[in-house]
Amino acid sequence: GWLLSPRGGAAGTDSAAAGAPSMDPTDKLALSVLNHLLLGTSSAALEKPLVESKLGAAVIGGGFSTSLQQPTFSVGLKGVAVGPEAKQAVADLVMETLRRVSRDGFEAAAVEASLNTVEFRLRASSASPMKGLTYMMQSLSEWNYGNDPVGPLRFEAPLADLKSRLAKGEKVLEALLEDLVLANPGRVTVALVPQVGLDREASAAEAARLRAVEQALSPAELEGLRRETRELKAEQAAPDDPAALARLPTLEVADLDRTVKSIPIQVQVLEVPGPKGANGGKKRATLLTHDLPTDKIVYLDVLLDLQLSGLPLEDVGLVPLLARMLSELGTHAASEVDLSRRVGARTGGVSCSALFSGKPGAEGSVGDPDDMAAYLLLRGRATLPNVAELFALAREKLVATNLDARDRVVEMLKEAKSAMEARVSSSGNAYASRQLGASHTLAGHVAEETGGLAQLATVKHALKQAEEDWPALRSRLKRMLATVLDPEGCVVNLTADHESLPQAEALVLELLRGLKRDTGPDPAAVATPEAAAAAAATTEVASQWRLPPRAAGGAPRSIGLSVGTKVNYVAKGARLYAPGERAPGSSSVVSRWLR
Questions:
Q1: CA 582, CA 364: separation in Å to the nearest integer?
Q2: How far apart are CA 467 and CA 471, in angstroms?
Q3: Does the model's pTM come out above 0.70?
């Protein structure tokens, strides 16, 4: 990691304590572009060689950070082998890669994609419902240190300056990398190494130190410490001065707008020609449109119904992996690098994820425990001139992604395993809550399968299978994708301004017609009885997606997990309202009060 100084300052000095000057706005914006070029995507200049090196399980550090008084740059790997050789290998790879990038420069297509991505984020924040919070956090990054709080919001001039200098062929980004990082002596390499019993040793050492301090104090000094401790606790527990509280700005109930703000929505049912299905061979999809002021940015959501398509519930644990593959891998016609640059240069991003949610009952009552929404979600955005490219990329990611990338899948699974194992220790309450919810509703069961300890077990099993029996895992993933690529029950959601909506709507039917993965038969797809049964599955999933019955003898009343953490995470829960009951609004108040 490096401690950076604005160009002209001395790195690695105590300039932060003396009040380091604010970084030049153009340099600060250029750092965002440089960070995206180095670490912003799976094919980025530093991210890709780090992952492919197999020296660790996941990239960490985050790159450039400008939120402190002095910017920093940090990068590394998690899950590195213990020992100085492995540590040095990671450091050497980082330095060699950064030197090569500084020497050879970035490809023009890569710079265009990263610059467009950063600009899109800046402009799209004005349409965000959280823009107030976004602007506040941007302002605080400078205001905290006595600098202009409005400066970070004025990006037009620095952006124009950066574009102009890049258009003239100036090596702005490479010069920043050389000046702020490679020529900077303020660098430190840190290795965090696990040590069995370290916690007990540290606790014992602390207890011994405290005993030594206690023995060195006189009775009067000990009594003085006890008195100061009591006084401190009393001061902390005492209510704040009403006069001081009155000076704080507060939001009263009367300040709130009691009018419910509705979002404009139009619903259309589209008939998509297809070889099978009801309605004379046509399939039905739903188009939702929202006419909102979006500054000529078109937002596209494509939701593929996992239940209606016939995907077995047993496959739901692999949906997160499939979604990540669709987001990051290349296609049969374009490499991962080329596709990533095209997405970055023409859109504000195109990605896939899973969407799961329980459904409420009639008039807001508690819904059926087995009633839920389950979708594979593709989400993208682009400016109006690039809306046709957005739809083309959406179709390519869904129907043409190359799922044969074994090495990349192994990397994804290792990263997921490493991240989930870390979260078990730091966010045990979330895992405990998912365990509870899994026994009450189908949505809770799916949440556990896709994000809880069951998902961690699935990731571990999939990683083992990818390394030892890749054809079987690949065939299962291909079969899953072929199953869900069905216009029947698909929902397309468009949000744009009045001028942009008609152009986007005109492209929807063509996208739906293309939802068919035609890559030829996969010999391994029916190599197992399970795969053959899945291939013969029908769209009648009402009998498939059900909350699994409790094991014979009843589900366990208590579950205990042993993890390496000082904190005990305890969760207890039960059903409060039966299906059909209406939970009163006061339940939210009570829940908040209990927390």
A1: 7
A2: 10
A3: yes
